[in-house]
Specification:
The chain is of the alpha+beta class and 432 residues long. 14% of the residues lie in helices and 31% in strands. Strands 7, 10, 11, 13, 14 and 15 form a 6-stranded antiparallel beta sheet that branches. Strands 5, 6, 8, 9 and 12 form a 5-stranded antiparallel beta sheet that branches. The longest helix is centred in the first third of the chain and has 13 residues, at 124-136. The termini are far apart.
């Protein structure tokens, strides 16, 4: 017994009924030996189901990324237009197939515009069969999308962290994707249109439409979901078995500090298959984003001193001065300077700050962005002979990341009248 399925790849929105006759000429087995006998197959009436929606080229009852691929090829002239193609795909009603139709289709895919309706009941059986076929694939074989970061963030407000969407287990080259990405808007925000882009896996001709929910391009009103549909008229060459399909540059918000791990979810992914006449639903991903652990003093020593030097406290000890510039090794670590160069010195400067209309003496200096297990003292002197570190008159005004990697600028003011501030200040970092 055998079952034969017929699939019509492109049909007008007009129902037709055709008679299908089976007339076998001969049969052979897998070894090539001819078989003799009859057949019980009789002629069958086949009804071609018409499309329900304009633009639904693959006739599955939804506007999806497979339709986008087929429509883009019609719009660009890569596929010939038949007599009915314009009427049943003219989404913007212009009387022609143009880029506006493709945009209208992508708007429905990413949720800017509603889908035209629910899948046609007559297609339920076919869709159920597709789900059964997908279930037959093991998790290891199924195409999937996963999330990753180019580099773990430090968790500083204003810092940029790049989240990548990576396709994996693709069994063939694809021509586009669509998906939605949920992110914690209280901790991560997209600054603007330039903060998302098509990844290097995509073909150069790829057209993408982004929907920053709930207001498409109003980034000030984002609610934590962005959807994208991207399609090209040709296959993305060398896209199998996978690669980066999209990148998002998020800006870390102050609320980041309230949690150790932030949850991002990639869902509703689709890729066109079978030249766009079918779509596959790759597995999505749940991703928890956390900060990278800060470099410790031991990490820093291993970076700047070899094993023999680290074993010699006169060279690599915290109080040793390997480059003889007057700054001991721990000071070089804290102030993010080079312990091997006497020209690399801490950036420390006296400044005046205005608080409530009154001038105050302050100190600006640069240190490592994260210095766990360390502290710093501010010692005052009037004559450079006697130093007083037992006081409580300083206030940290700001700690701001700077362009130099993993470095912050700190501004500390002394909350005493300007005339009463001692003439000299020194900074003394220490291990806690």
């Amino acid at each position: 017994m055998a079952t034969v399925w017929f699939r019509v790849l492109s049909i007008p929105m007009v129902p037709r009924s055709e008679t299908v006759r089976n007339q076998p000429v001969n049969y052979s087995n897998t070894a090539g030996t001819r078989l003799f006998g009859g057949t019980m197959v009789t002629r069958t009436d086949l009804t071609i189901i018409p499309r329900d929606y304009i633009g639904d080229i693959n006739a599955n009852g939804l506007l999806d990324i497979g339709d986008a691929y087929r429509l883009q090829r019609l719009v660009n002239g890569s596929d010939p237009k038949r007599s009915w193609d314009t009427a049943i795909n003219d989404l913007n009603g212009s009387g022609n197939l143009d880029s506006g139709d493709l945009i209208r289709l992508l708007r429905a895919i990413v949720g800017i515009d509603p889908q035209p309706g629910q899948p046609a009941p007559l297609l339920d059986k076919a869709k159920a069969r597709g789900k059964e076929e997908a279930a037959d694939k093991s998790a290891a074989d199924r195409p999937r999308f996963r999330l990753a970061v180019a580099e773990a963030p430090l968790g500083i407000p204003g810092e940029t962290v790049t989240v990548q969407v990576i396709a994996e287990n693709l069994s063939q080259d694809i021509s586009g994707v669509s998906f939605a990405l949920d992110y914690p808007v209280e901790a991560l925000r997209l600054p603007g249109f330039s903060s998302h882009k098509v990844g290097p896996l995509a073909a150069a001709s790829t057209f993408a439409l982004w929907n920053v929910s709930p207001s498409v391009t109003n980034y000030s009103a984002q609610d934590g979901t962005i959807s994208v549909g991207m399609t090209a008229e040709e296959l993305w060459q060398n896209s199998a078995p996978g690669g980066v399909v999209a990148e998002f540059d998020f800006e870390i918000q102050p609320a980041w500090a309230s949690n150790d791990n932030w949850h991002l979810r990639l869902r509703d992914a689709q890729i066109p298959t079978d030249q766009g006449y079918s779509v596959a639903d790759p597995a999505g991903d749940d991703f928890f984003l956390s900060v990278q652990p800060p470099a410790t003093y031991a990490d820093w020593l291993a970076e700047h001193f070899n094993a023999a030097e680290r074993a010699d406290p006169l060279v690599s000890g915290a109080s040793a001065d390997a480059d003889l510039d007057g700054i001991n090794n721990f000071g070089e670590f804290y102030f993010a300077t080079d312990p091997r160069s006497g020209d690399s010195r801490p950036k420390i400067a006296p400044i005046l700050v205005d608080v409530g209309g009154e001038p105050f003496f302050a100190v600006s200096y640069r240190r490592r962005l994260q210095v766990p297990g360390t502290g710093i003292g501010y010692e005052l002197s009037r004559d450079l002979a006697v130093w007083d570190g037992d006081h409580d008159c300083e206030e940290v005004l700001s700690v701001t990341p700077v362009a130099e990697p993993e470095v912050a600028e700190v501004i500390v003011r002394f909350v005493v009248p300007l005339a009463e501030v001692p003439r000299f200040v020194r900074l003394v970092p220490y291990l806690e």
